[in-house]
Design brief:
- This protein has eight helices and six strands.
- With about 220 residues, it is an alpha+beta fold.
- Strands 3-4-6-5 form a four-stranded antiparallel sheet. A two-stranded parallel ribbon has the order 1-2.
- The longest helix has 18 residues.
- It is elongated, with a radius of gyration of 22 Å.
- The relative contact order is 0.09.
- The mean pLDDT is about 90.
Length: about 220
């Protein structure tokens, strides 16, 4: 956010550029969006530094939706927020999606949050999709070794369970996405690696009756 612009001008920047609002309705529209994302309509005259991280994220949501999009790309929208604030932002996004019929492309490292908001989930490694499928199914029953490691890294909100469970640590070094080696990009760090993995790039193959897609030589297609 431009620190020299008021919240009013930040929210109206897109609609002004696209000529979506007339001058007479601009103020009312800004106030409407501020209130819709849980802020006070009087906040329009303030500057970004006067708000908390969660409040700034709400302003960012208002800015994005003010241009009336059908698709919203959310790139790490909750990574810098406290857990309680993360839940508030996720709930707000879910409400707005239901009200306005939106589609989200939600990008995040926290797969637990991704599954709460998403219908489908895709796990990527070095810019390539290694597994995709229904969000809840993928989270509960991951197939690809990298998906399993990512989900296992999420803490369980029970001290006794968390203390006793075994960690799945990924060994090895991350490869270069700019100059990738032949074969599977995850091969140098994979516990299921075999000789073929270093030579042949695994295609994204349909499995489990078409519900899931996985790029792994170790995963065999289930019968149709």
């Amino acid at each position: 956010m431009n620190p020299r612009m008021t919240v009013r001008d930040l929210i109206a920047e897109g609609p002004d550029a696209l000529k979506l609002w007339t001058r007479s309705e601009r103020e009312a529209k800004v106030c409407e969006w501020l209130e819709r994302v849980g802020l006070n309509s009087q906040h329009g005259s303030r500057y970004p530094h006067e708000f908390s991280g969660g409040q700034r994220q709400r302003i960012g949501i208002a800015r994005a939706l003010a241009v009336d999009p059908r698709l919203v790309i959310c790139d790490e929208p909750i990574s810098a927020l406290d857990v309680s604030v993360q839940a508030q932002i996720i709930n707000l996004l879910r409400e707005l999606r239901r009200e306005r019929g939106l589609t989200y492309l939600f990008i995040a490292h926290d797969l637990n949050m991704v599954r709460v908001l998403s219908d489908r989930m895709a796990v990527m490694y070095l810019g390539r999709i290694v597994e995709t499928g229904p969000a809840e199914v993928l989270y509960q029953h991951p197939i690809h070794p990298y998906s399993k490691a990512l989900i296992a890294a999420n803490p369980i909100p029970d001290p006794e369970v968390e203390k006793s469970r075994t960690r799945q640590l990924i060994q090895g070094e991350v490869g270069s996405p700019v100059n990738p080696k032949p074969g599977c990009l995850f091969a140098p760090r994979c516990s299921l690696v075999h000789e073929r993995c270093h030579r042949v790039t695994p295609p994204l193959r349909q499995t489990q009756g078409g519900e899931r897609w996985v790029a792994c030589h170790a995963v065999q297609d289930s019968p149709e």
